[in-house]
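Can you give me the bound-state structure? Components:
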Amino acid sequence: MNHFDADIRIIKRVIAETFKGIERTRWMNLIIITTMAAILSIFGCLFRTSIAISDFVEHLGDSLEVSVYLKPGYSIEKSKAAIIKIGNIKEIKVIPREQAWEKIKQEMDVPDIKNPLPDTLRLKVKNQDEIEYVIKKVKNMRSVESVQYARDIVEKIIKIGNVTNIATLIVLIVLGGLTLSIINNTIHLVIQSRSEEIEIMRMMGVGNWYIRAPYILQGAFYGFCGALISIIPLRILENYIISMSQFFNMAEPLVFTNVVVVVLMSMGIFVGSLGSFISVRKYLRI
Amino acid sequence: MIRFRNVIKTYGAQRALDSINLHIKVGEFIFLTGTSGAGKSTIMRLIYREEKPTRGQALIGGVDVAKLPDNKIPYLRRRMGIVFQDFKLLPQQNVFDNVAFVIRALGMNSREINKRVSGALKIVGLFDRLDAYPSQLSGGEQQRVGIARAIVNGPPLLIADEPTGNLDPQTSMEIMEILEQINKRGTTILLATHDKEMVNHFKKRVITLENGKVVRDIHEGTYEQ
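Here's the bound-state model for the whole set.
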């Protein structure tokens, strides 16, 4: 007997046995898959939201400008050079007070008074995390009158992002445990209902893994189906996120949902097979 | 084929087997007799390594079962066929599948499976009932399926624990004749029973147990002196 062919036939038999097992589980399949889908949906949506928020913070930071107002009488160019020296500067724009005043005069009907505006520098930083450092340095410069940027918004969004991250982690642990126990108990019932068959197979010298593998694959199957269904709410969320980012006039998020789908699939399959593996180890005496 | 050296098996304080010494050669047909609780089933369970001896050595085909790692047990069992008193057939599978499922699990191809299952069913005289389900068969027929399943992989050893215990005397005789045929083809058979008539009729080696001890071991023996 060719060993390779025999192995292929054994794999085919194991898969056939898996589907027989699923068929025999009947209406319970529906309950398990629905539960798995609900759990994976909750996790997937939270996960996707937390990615969206950190993505948002990054993009917002990109479009967030820091305005530096200079004291009268200082050289714009010298100040600009000094700011660039601090480092971490992505872009710096010079707006002379005359130019700003002209612009305002064009846009609004202002009385003919002396130009009240200071010289202004608009800058963007490369690394948002170190924005505070840059601002502190700039503020301490002698030529600088004041500095302004939308600090509150950034801080709030970062906070929301942190909360979502923690929630995702907690949900992952709690629902992961719940899923494990659901699969574990289901497979326990399946094993119980087939105990006589298993006993005969053991006595006849059927290999351990041939007996065990169908149950583990059955658990993996539930995880896979659950993950497949959970893509639907994820798609809906994705549309919402896209319209949000269009509203904020940001670049469309790219592959994140696909990453989430891959994560959900692997998690579903992993947790499903782990749950049944625990059950097989505990209840299927070989 | 089977050698027990001073085998002791205890369950808690109870001693199920007490210094058993046995030597069974290839091709022998042996009746293992004794009242229930005498230790027949324990010996069987040691042979197919459902249990390990508490002390002593049990060698099956040269392998010390106590030292056999758990993951090697299937290989030991593939070299023996086991026949049960209650047949242990799968009710939702037909005769062919009941016999075939063991060798399917070994990855045999369908041509080989067909050949072996047909061969085994011919030996037990059930070749014409391939498609029947266990519920459609008589007790004797069900046990014949059980025997076909036990021999389908061509094992050198056949163990049968009270195979005729649930059958009427005439059917029991038919089953015994089939087992005798199998023995003549070279398979060693160890059969536990307390059916006096059968033991007396077939005149084989008889090993009698009492309270976990071998009290008699006689070739061409009968149930009692």
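A couple of observations. Chain B has a mean pLDDT of 92. The beta strands of chain B are 2-11, 14-24, 29-33, 55-60, 63-64, 80-83, 157-161, 188-192, 205-210, 213-218.
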